[in-house]
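Think of the structure tokens as a kind of shorthand, similar to the way a musician reads notation: each symbol stands for something richer, in this case the local conformation of the backbone. In the example below we present two proteins back to back. Begin with the first one, reading the sequence and then the tokens, and try to describe in your own words what changes along the chain.
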Amino acid sequence: MNQEHTDPYVVVIVGAGPRGTGILERLLANVGEIPVSRPLRIDLVDPFPPGGGRVWRQEQSSLMWMNALAGNVTMFTDDTVRCAGPIRPGPSLSEWAAADGTHWDVLGMSFASRQVQSHYLSWVFDKIVAECPDGLTVAVHETTATRLTGGPDSRQQVWLADRAEPLDADVVVLALGHQEAGPSEEDLRVAGFAERHGLRYLPSAYTADADLSGFLAGENVVLRGFGAAFVDVMALLTEGRGGEYRVEQGKLRYVPCGDEPVLYVGSRRGVPYRAKIAYRLVGRPAQLPWFFDAAALDRVLADREHLDFRTDLWPLMAKEIGWGYYHELFTAHPNRVTCDWDEFFAGFAAYDWDSAPLRELVEAAVPEPADRLDLAAVDRPLAGLRFAGFDEVQAHVRAEIKADVRRRGEFTHSADLGATAAMLSVNRQLRQLRAIEKLSARSMVQDVHGWWQGFFEYYTSGPPAQRSRQLLALSEAGVVRFLGADMWVDTDEERGVFRAGSASTPDSIEATALVEARLPRADLSTTTDPLLRGLYESGEATDDVLADEDGFEHSSGLLLVSTEDFRVLDKAGRPHPRRYAIGPFTNVRHFAAFATPRSNAVSFRQNDTLARGVLAVLADGDDRFEYPTERHTVHKGLTL
């Protein structure tokens, strides 16, 4: 290096949201164990306030809620986290709120607004900076990083939007969070159609950034998507415009203000995500993992050259979910079964999932059909159903939502939480499974990243139950209408309207507005972030591409990084010694930046690994910065 030895080492973190804040905390925690020979300065670059960043900033509607319980959110490590660095405990969101005293309504089993979470994250950031060790300084630059230059054997330059001179850095960490891509060909086609006919079209966007003011009172608006983005749009276009909810005779009722559009919503499933569970396990927790253990499976599958998801993995994954479900049903609610757990488990362990003997065992031991676990029905509750018209669709979907709210709100259905715990375990084990690399690229894309992740999020990452109750009230008030499963949208040039329907009914509707109610898909080749776009166009970064020998090829649109140490890989597959990246814009697909307390959270382990790698680079000095000449091996599977 060319600096004088009195000059500080500099680490620039681009992105000061929860992930950037977590990396900062791990750098400060580990610097005492991996000391560097000079003072250290850490610069964070983000146009939004540090701590919350863009998604969790204070300046957004109070109607935007978290979909995690306040007691299940923390930014601090605890003694369950298996990482090399020091453990530095701190309060969860609910513990902080209780101590702070200004958010008396934020309890462990409540759902805080994103504004409250923003306060917590700002407090976390300030606490971390206040506890900086000697010889270390932190600076925040509230601007956008527009470009990253510098060779592998020299310092890096991070160019900023608000000044001519760059920040010089020894190491750069990209923690940019969720990214937006430029419009696709389909977006442009639909936007052109809307413009020609004076209609309104909103492509995929982050709801807090979207302008919803153009949607007219009383007009039909089609929303394509039934997940978190839909819930946000629903809240802003109803209660956000002045409508209100009232409880009358024990039932939630929506009173329109008159400014609401009529929202027609549909999706592949045709029902909303399952509501968050509002109780704890009643029985003794099941031991997890049991049937789907990554280490054990890797040993069993070591000699297999190829794997099939549906025949080799899914049956064991489903059995693990069933194990969690029935263990809770039998140990917590013995009055609803006909035998004891040990007797049932002997047969359950012996039979294959979804085999005739297992179905017979369940039917004999669990008399009530509603107490039996049917994963296919859970995944596609409207599959095979055909209704005469939209009125029948409304009644059926309302019944589905009411049943879901009841199951997720009454502890008598705590077997659902047993299934949820098992699904979380399955998802963790799947990320650790080395044998997953033996799946084809097509299967990774369609079965793992596609179907499984969609099903997992649908079952475990839904809205608070109160949102589902509000959805019911809006439906009963005629403000929200359900389209059904396998929805479709056409552009009718002759009539100049959007037309929408579904496979659930022959009925269709005409609308003057369309909203893509889903988060933007990452696409490195068209990203709106100038820094990432520049790295991609220069070949200094590349996207994650999966391919098979039969010609199948798929680009995830995600920045390719090493799954071992999170270094950025160039187009030739070489890891850059001075550039790291982590988050939802990378192929490291686990991107939750904060975590449930006492869960050995993946995000904490990732942050610790990355931070210790950065400090090791600085501690080793010049000899560390050698540019590899060989291509880095990238695992095509999921990663820790």
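Once you have a description of the first chain, move to the second and do the same.
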Amino acid sequence: MFLRSGLLVEEKYVTAMGNLKALLGNTHLSGGSAAYLEAVYETYLQDPEAVSPEWRDYFEELKLAGGAHADVPHAPIRDQFRQAALHAGAAPDSRVLQQMAEHERKQVRVLQLINAYRFRGHQYANLSPLGIHERPHVPDLDLEYHNLADADLNLQFNTGSFLFGRKKASLKEILHALRATYCGTIGAEYMHITDTVQKRWIQERLEMRRSQPNFVAETKRRIFERITAAEGLERYLHSRYVGQKRFSLEGGEALIPMLDDMVQRAGKSGVEEVIVGMAHRGRLNVLVNILGKSPTNLFQEFEGKYDHDHLQGSGDVKYHKGFSSDIRTPGGPLHLVLAFNPSHLEIVSPVVEGSVRARQERRGAGANARVLPVLIHGDAAIAGQGVVMETMNMSQARGYATGGTVHIVVNNQVGFTTSNPLDARSTLYCTDVFKMVQAPIFHVNGDDPEAVVFVSQLALDYRNEFERDVVIDMVCYRRHGHNEADEPAVTQPQMYQRIRELPTLRQLHGERLTKEGMLKEGEVDAVAESYRDKLESGAIAARDVIENGKGNKHTVDWSRFHGTDWRHPVDTSLPQPVIKELTERLTQLPEGLELHPRVAKIIDDRRKMGAGALAMDWGFAETLAYAALLRENYAIRISGQDCGRGTFFHRHAVLHNQKEDAHYIPLQHLAEEQPQFRVIDSLLSEEAVLGFEYGYATAEPDTLVIWEAQFGDFANGAQVVIDQFISSGESKWGRLCGLVMFLPHGYEGQGPEHSSARLERYLQLCAEQNIQVCVPSTPAQMFHMLRRQALRPYRKPLVVMTPKSLLRHKLSTSSLEDISEGRFQPVIPEVEPIKPSGVRKVVLCSGKVYFDLYEARQAREADDVVILRVEQLYPFPVEELSVELKRYTRAREVVWCQEEPKNQGAWFSSKHHLEECLRTGQSLSYAGRDFSASPATGYFSLHVQQQAALVDQALS
């Protein structure tokens, strides 16, 4: 019985035998005990808590002795128990012993039944208010499936780990408690979680209460009042603004009491800020009834009135707008924010997470508990949009975690207008995607508002306890179509026939409270009339709003960044003594750090660069820019795929020890009280990571926030973020953002997906000085551009076409003087001493092609051609370029040369700017690749041929 590797562990065997004899003696058994022992052992395997402490200790001793392991086949264990019974002196079998053994087998089956309800009870729960589909038959929940019968209902069994309130109960009582806990209007999915502590925590919260809320009268009345407010706003808008889109919350009104209670509970638990992201469904209701937006302002938006005094830019439709307010809670004032969101539904999710992360880091250690992200989803969107998975994949990643998010799914059971769940997903629930991060999922019937609030309390407490994501799937319906002008019965006739028959949630809950004596006769209608009077008077309809709130000590003052221009003067130079000091700190490495030989040479070269003994390269110029900003109290955050080292082996912000699993980040060790420098090798995502960094930058203007694409081409995976937020967020919503995008760009014969960052796309988005687009061609330009971005009181996104081969080009270097005495040049003049009077042609270009043109001109000794570099393509430096062109009075021909095909690159988007700079008599022409559907050729020999041709075309 106690064999391990074929050897008898004699001493432990003897001890265990003595214990077994005592146990059998205590039970007064006479007869062969093998069957009984086997049944007890099976019970122990299912749940150690289901057997007595004496048996539990005995089986633990067997483990120590090397015997009864869970992975040992049961047949040998049965033989071992028979031998053990003989050694213990047991007598032959008896009828009593057989009955006890059978009861123990049934005990095992009862434990299996309990686990079945924990695993699958949610499938039989009463979740849908519509009731148009029968609840499915779940065989695992049947007594027969576990070889139990009605005849066993009155037998007493150990309840095991099921929190019944006592250790033993009849099967009938256990079954009733299981159905109440797991098959009522709440269905819990949590058994997929591998962490036992988390599972036990959820079991305790559900099973001790049987998933039944027990609210005091005041809470119940508040829930009803908030339901009335939710319905009241929708009905008021429906009657006053007939046919206008508002994306009604009707059918999902329980969202309002849920959020109301969550905000109050969050404040009580120490949360200081709640940042909410949601799409358009129910958004107006949340704005008015939770955040306290003025009904009068909302009505003006419905009437199409334009606020000339406060609105600049395009503005946006009313159901995309954000809002913020301060709310009274038992724990003190809480700042509540609803993030702006376009119609791309789930794209707001990573933006909210980034904003939350910035706010948490502003507060310092332990701030996860003080800033809470809440994301509200639609059922079709959560299942259909890939950014959901990307965002969840960041939830526990070091550079992106926010201490857990409360996810709320407003599950209308229909997507858009016609989508059937069978067409919308391949999973049982729309929330199944959350299982990838082992988030517990609480499904709840939206027509049971008290259950909804109960679940929201459970979810918030779980998030605060474990700092992990949690999901509330509020199953409800949509009383109208996708919008109020839509006729949903055309495509969903059965569903909408049933919806027309349903009483509203206000009616249902009002009747319930009236029966319970919580409301008096007539009070249901009185509450509704009172709310309507508020709307008529324009009074704030939300509860506990602090009017004219002044924020808190963590509130950021953005006013200093408004109204400034990109030409705002700022000194970006760095004195040489400071360069020397920073170089010493950047290259002073701790003892025991053994670098890769190639990296060791880079660090040694940087020592020489800082001393002026070696020309400065891109990697060191960029690092020096970060060091200088940290010295001036600006934090740095840079993330992207492989950005710690740099895709092109140039940055080396993170130095890896070759002898052990350790690393060192020099930029984190410049001074004891320096701001944070964080460099993050991101997950393999563009869309969610860029959205996160945008959100971070909109909340933290004093941090230089950078996202680096592995190749600029890959940024098109984040095009929604670029179109809907980065390029238009200020125009639509007045949101300033200083985010920097590094997009490696340049034609080196690497094929269509490793050449072009699609410069033309960003230039097409340029208007009203919304973004900046730069193509630096030297390390010094990179240095000054980054410092300018942080030091100016100017916060606009900066899109940078960063180099690849130029990182090690012999001509693309800078001197100490370029750093200590220079500045960023939107246009770099001709660098050679060419007499202006002898120039017949001016070639304009940006980026890497300059060096091809320069070398070809030098080889040809063409001193009648000058080459000007336009380093900032937007806002276009008209003044600077005009001044340069005026110097060449005899030059009649001006050529724009680019590597990209003619329909791509800067040509078409910048042609009008170039023409504005020409002198009288000058003409503008194009030199470059011809029109192409693809960004670049995949054949290196053809690339070389094309490159030589465009250079020749420009210089000839």
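Compare your description with these statements about the second chain. Residues 264 and 329 are 5 Å apart (CA to CA).
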